[in-house]
Amino acid sequence: MIRIYLKQAWFLLRENKLLTAVSVGGTALAICLIMVIVIVWQIRVASYSPEDYRDRMLFVNWAVANGVEDSNVNNSAKLGSRVAKECLYPLETAEAVGIGSHVYQALVATTDHAVEFEADMSHTDAGYWRVFNFRFLAGKPYDEAAVASGIKEVVVSASTARRLFGTTDAVGKTIEVNYVPYVIRGVVRDVSRLAEAAYADVWVPYTSCYTAFMDNGCERLLGIFDAYLLAPSAADRPKVKAEALANIERMNASQREFRLKLFGAPDDITEARVRDHPMLEPPVAKVVARYVLIIAIILLIPAINMSGLTLSRMRKRMAEIGVRRAFGATRRELVTQILCENLLQTLMGGVLGLVVSYVMVTALPGWLLAADDTGISQAFLNADMLFNPVIFALAFLACLLLNLLSAGIPAWRSARAPIVRALNNG
């Protein structure tokens, strides 16, 4: 029966091409706008290389040192390495713990300075390489021994290796980073700037730099590091968070001048993305409500317009509806037929809208994805970011909702019309 409905729907679409074009175009525009929002949000929170484990990670991106004697004294910055050593590394519930700095501009050069350029550098520990799933093209990451001893070893991206030596086969070669010799330990596949926690061109052990620069005050509570906690599963994140906070409370008990406060952190990926102030809890509910409202408006406005078009089309078919009612068709059957017919049109618009949304995201990443001045507009997108089953499922759901909103009321009104009136109107 559904097959018959769809055949009839296809015939009706071909019969009135202008009305079909308007309806499909309106659907495509609505789905395109919704899917751009969904795709951009998915890129920010979904798992993809090398941040493959976002769904079971916790983040500490900000910290506050609160005065012991005067609670009005607050200093906010990143975490100091001392906190990682005393409170985070000992975590028994975490699968891995790592720290890394945001990127800094560094001068990278061959030893003879025949090739030199600025690159983005991050200071990390050894655990960083276990939290993230980097694709090593050659070599391997530096380990705990290298970090503990401050050995000058470096991991570089594939594009950095090619600019320096013309090849990714660069393991064992020496380069200079800010005029300091480093030996390349590994080469990894390029990381998009959209993977904000893992992105860099060059990664070095944080101990290979001036240690005082890493922990800059407040009894070494604050520094330059973000902390990344990897739980065994998403369900284990509350346990990891509780243990981390308990360790911090124990450390705070012995503090003389400042106590560390995280204001709700460690955060999951959603909380980390919406947190906009180190001393305020992340407004997840407010952000979700805003997205729901925007999507509802985008769905509702074209649905109202297309509902009028659908009702107009139904009026032309009142005689057909009256005849079917006279021969025993139930209201439910008529409503089902009208919804199935409209669904074909909605799916056509949905597919077109999804394609256009991908074109927009890939063609305008700087406009759609830029949230600050960190150069994110230069980020590249890959298949892992874009082609996610969740995106396709949400696109189909949006089509169903739009179909129900635009055709549901006209279908019900047409099916409820008395048989005699339907025949007379025809």
UniProtKB/TrEMBL annotation:
Ranges of residues in domain ABC3 transporter permease C-terminal: 293-418
InterPro entries: ABC3_permease_C, MacB_PCD, Macrolide_Exporter_MacB
Domain MacB-like periplasmic core residue range list: 20-244
Membrane topology summary: Multi-pass membrane protein
Keyword terms, alphabetized: Cell membrane, Membrane, Transmembrane, Transmembrane helix
UniProt-listed Pfam families: FtsX, MacB_PCD
A single cellular component GO annotation: plasma membrane
Record has Heme as a keyword: no
Location within or outside the cell: Cell membrane
Molecular function via GO: transmembrane transporter activity
Transmembrane segments: 21-41, 288-311, 347-370, 390-412
Name by which UniProt lists this protein: ABC transporter permease
Organism: Candidatus Parabacteroides intestinigallinarum
Organism lineage: Bacteria, Pseudomonadati, Bacteroidota, Bacteroidia, Bacteroidales
